[in-house]
Amino acid sequence: MVHIRFTSIAFGVAALSSALAFPAYESLSGLSERQLVEAASESNRGGGGGGPGAKVPPPPPGPPSFTGAKLVDDARHPWMPTRPGDIRGPCPGLNTLASHGYLPRDGVASPEQIIKAVQDGFNMDNELARFTTYMAHLLDGNPVTDLISIGGKTPKTGPDPPRPAIVGGISNHGTFEGDGSMTRADAFFGDNHSFNPALFEQFKDFSNRLGGGFYNLTVAAELRFHRIQQSIGNNPQFSIVGFRHLTLYAEAAFPVTLFVDGRRTGAQAGHLDMRSAESFFKDMRFPRGFFRAAQPSGAGPAPEIFAAHPTVPGRNVAGVNTFTPDTSLGSITDFCTFYTQFVSKTLKGLYPNPTGVLRRNLNINLNFLYQSLGAGAQGCPQVFPYGQN
Ligand code: HEM
Ligand SMILES: *[C@@H]1O[C@H](CO)[C@@H](O)[C@H](O)[C@H]1NC(C)=O
Ligand SMILES: *[C@@H]1O[C@H](CO)[C@@H](O)[C@H](O)[C@H]1NC(C)=O
Predict the structure, then answer these.
(1) What residue spans carry the Pro residues bias annotation (predicted)?
(2) Within a domain: 383
(3) Which of 48, 66, 191, 333 could disulfide-link to 56, CB 3.0 to 4.6 Å?
C-alpha cells in the first residue's frame, strides 16, 4: 500500500514542468513585479514600509478557542447577492464566506482574513487553512499589499471601499486553479471559474447512482477519477501536475468534511444532500440554518479518495488521450519533493529576482508556508530561495 503523508492537510503529489505552467518573468496572476509594487503605492488599504499600500504580513491566526459545531448562517452574517464589482471565483467555500460577510464582500482579502474566515465559518483545521492560504497567496496574491482576490485579478476601480489598483487572484489558471474540477469547466473550454450546470448535473447523477442521493466518499472517489478521465479524453491541454495533483483530492473531500451540517452524526455523517450541495456550489450560500462541522476538519479523507483509483501527475502532451506522467515536481506520495520543487522551481520562476519589500514579504510568507507543514515537514529542510532574511 502506498504511504501517503497528509499532514493534517495532507498532501503529497505530483509534478509538472514549471517552465510550461509558470513562465518566468511573466505571470504573477498576469501581473509584473512592477505592477505589484505600483498597486502598493496606489493602495489605501495598507500601512507599512515600501509605499502607502505596502504591508508587513502579520503572523497567521491560530486555531479559534471554540472548535465545535455552531450556527454559522446567523444574523451577523446574512447572505447578500453580489454587487457590481464584487469578485467571486472557482472556490465554493470562499465564495460562500464572502457572500455571508465572513470575508470582505468584495472578494478581496488578506491571508489573515481568509484563515480566520475558513475556521470561523467552516471549522477548517488550522494547519490546512494556513497551508492552503499561503500556497494561494504565494502563487496568486499580491505579497506587497498582502491582499488576494478570491477570483480574477481586480480591475483598477472597485466598489466602496476602494481597493488597491491591482490584486491577483485564485482564478489564475495553472497556478492553484486547475483542470478536472467537479463543478467548473477546464480553462481550455473558456471559463475556468463559474458554476457549470452540466457538470453539476453529473455531480448529482453520480451522487444519485452511487450515494443514494448523497455525495459521500464513495461518490467522491468515483467522480474524482471520472473527471480526470473525462478531461484526458476531451481537453487537449489537460494538466494535473504539481500542486494540482494534491488539490484535486483535497477538494473532493471538502464537500464531505465541510459542507455537511455539523449536527449530522452517526449514519447521517459524511453524506451531503443535493439541495445543500447546490446551495454552496451554485448559490454561494449556506443552507438555511447551517451548522459548521463538529470538529476541525479538512482533507483527512483525501488519501482514501486517492487510494480508490490511484493516478499519477501528468498532462496531455499532444492532444486528447496523450496523457503522459510527469512527477518532476514531486507526488502525492512524496510531499517533500513537492514542497522543495514548489519553492525552488515554481515560486522562483514566478519571482526570479525580487528586491526590497517584495523580497522581504515573500520571505515572510515562505516562512509561514513552511511552518504550516507541521508534521508534514519532518525530515524536509526549509528552502530559502531568496536568502534567510
Ligand atoms: C483556505 C483557503 C482556501 C483557498 C485559498 C481555496 C482555493 C480554492 C481554489 C483556487 C479552488 C479551485 C481549484 C480548481 O478546482 O481548479 C478551490 C476549489 C474548491 N474549494 Fe477551495 N479554497 C479554500 C478553502 C476552502 C474551503 C473552506 C472549502 C469548503 C468549505 C473549499 C471547498 C472547495 C471545493 C469543494 C472546491 C472544488 C470545486 C470543484 O471541483 O468544482 N475551499 N478552492
Ligand atoms: C480563468 O479565469 C480568470 C477569471 O475570469 C480569467 O481572467 C482567465 O483568463 C481565465 N483563464 C483561462 C486560461 O481561461
Ligand atoms: C455512500 O452511499 C452509498 C449508498 O447509500 C453506500 O452504499 C456507500 O457505502 C456510502 N459510502 C460511504 C463511504 O459511506
Answers:
(1) 55-64
(2) no
(3) 48
State the total domains in the chain: 1
Q: Distance of alpha carbon 279 from its chain centroid, rounded?
A: 19
Q: How far is the CA of 76 from the centre of ligand 1 (A)?
A: 24
Tell me the whole-structure pTM to 2 decimals.
0.90
Query: What is the Å distance from ligand 2's center to 132 Cα?
Result: 20
Distances (CA, A) of 328 to 7, 312, 338, 341, 357: 21, 11, 9, 8, 31
pLDDT, tens only, 257-287: 999 999 999 989 999 999 999 999 999 999 9
387 domain-assigned: no
- Summarize pLDDT for 181-219 with one digit per residue, the tens: 999 999 999 998 999 999 999 999 999 999 999 999 999
Write out the residue range of the structural domain in which residue 368 sits.
Answer: 6-377
Q: Nearest residue CA, atom 6 of ligand 3? A: 211
> In this predicted model, what pLDDT tens digit does every residue of 223-270 receive, in sequence order?
999 999 999 999 999 999 989 999 999 999 999 999 999 999 998 999
The count of residues in the chain is: 389
Q: Nearest CA to 12 among 334, 325, 309, 337?
A: 334
Which ligand has an atom closest to residue 154 CA?
Answer: 2
List C-alpha distances in Å: 140 to 51, 114, 127, 387. Answer: 21, 14, 20, 22
Contacts of 32 (CB under 8 A, 6+ apart): none
Name 169's bridge partners.
149
Does ligand 3 lie within 6 Å of residue 216's CB atom?
Answer: yes
Q: Following CA atoms 32, 36, 330, 365 in sequence, which dihedral angle do they give, to the nearest 10 degrees?
A: 160
Distance CA 58, CA 146 (A): 9
Q: Is residue 76 in some structural domain?
A: yes
Q: Whose CA is nearest to atom 37 of ligand 1?
A: 251
Decide if 301 is inside a domain.
yes
Ligand 3 within 6 A of CB of 211:
yes
The ligand minimizing its distance to the Cα of 94 is 1
Among 175, 25, 170, CA closest to 108: 170
- The answer to whether the CB of 181 is under 6 A from ligand 1 is yes
C-alpha cell at 127: 494547519
Q: How many CB atoms lie within 10 A of CB 286?
A: 27
CB under 8 Å to 208, separation ≥6 — which residues?
Answer: none
